[in-house]
Amino acid sequence: MSDEDKRRWKGPGADRKDSGRRMSERKVIARNARTESSKRWIERQLQDPYVRKAKEDGYRSRAAFKLLEIDEAAAILRKGQRVIDLGCAPGGWIQVALQKGASEVAGIDLLPLDPIEGAHIIEGDVNNPEDVARMMSGLSGQPDLILSDMAANTTGHKQTDHLRTVALVEMAVAFAIEHLAEGGSFCAKVFQGGTTKELLVLLKQHFRSVKHIKPSASRASSPEIYVVAKGFRR
């Protein structure tokens, strides 16, 4: 039973004889709703030109085109860079960074992912110092670019989802401020109209330029947008 059902359903009354049947009906309805949602997702994937192009071009996900468009607009990728990708699964952004000539790429994600030649990938938590140390061991020095396409699992409750996303962005910004090389760049996914006022102030204190980009590869129906900060200064 979902949390919403738990809140609404108070249990059968003394004179209720059909509660078992009603609960069974609710389970069937909930299962059908999930099935319909899955069908819509599959249909959207099949019709998505970026999904098809990702397969044709050998990218692990359509997200690769988001980073390519962000780079076209902000020029954050360059040859010889040391790059870190936070929340790197399934690996599309790592592929793009290597394609653009990064000399060293390290990534971390809670989910396992298949190896990518030329990248040092760790299955772990960016909040765990030991996992971070294992990831950082894949670089010969401070990163020149830190990427984060991390997104919290959605609950359907806008305020809760917003708070979860803000927490991830704050974590990524704190990581960047601690680890970025002087003059480095930072790019992270944000939602709900962009970066919060407090976080925007913090970014402007540490970077020469800060702006938001909505790549066309990001679905129009998606609330996601990316913050790009360049010219890191301690």
Observed structural traits:
alpha/beta; Rossmann fold; 2 domains; seven-stranded mixed sheet; 234 residues; disordered N terminus; globular; 8 helices
In short:
The chain has helices spanning 3-8, 19-47, 49-57, 63-74, 92-99, 129-136, 158-179, 197-206; strands spanning 82-86, 104-109, 119-123, 145-148, 185-190, 207-213, 225-232. With 234 residues, it is α/β, with parallel strands linked by helices. Residues 1-33 have low confidence and may be disordered.
Describe the protein:
The termini are far apart. The chain has helices spanning 3-8, 19-47, 49-57, 63-74, 92-99, 129-136, 158-179, 197-206, and strands at 82-86, 104-109, 119-123, 145-148, 185-190, 207-213, 225-232. Helices cover 44% and strands 18% of the residues. Helix 5 (92-99) links the parallel strand 1 (82-86) and strand 2 (104-109). It is globular. The protein has 2 domains: 3-47; 60-232, Rossmann fold (3-Layer(aba) Sandwich). It is of the alpha/beta class. The chain has 8 helices and 7 strands; from the N terminus they run H-H-H-H-E-H-E-E-H-E-H-E-H-E-E. The protein has a 7-stranded mixed sheet with strand order 3-2-1-4-5-7-6, with helices on both faces.
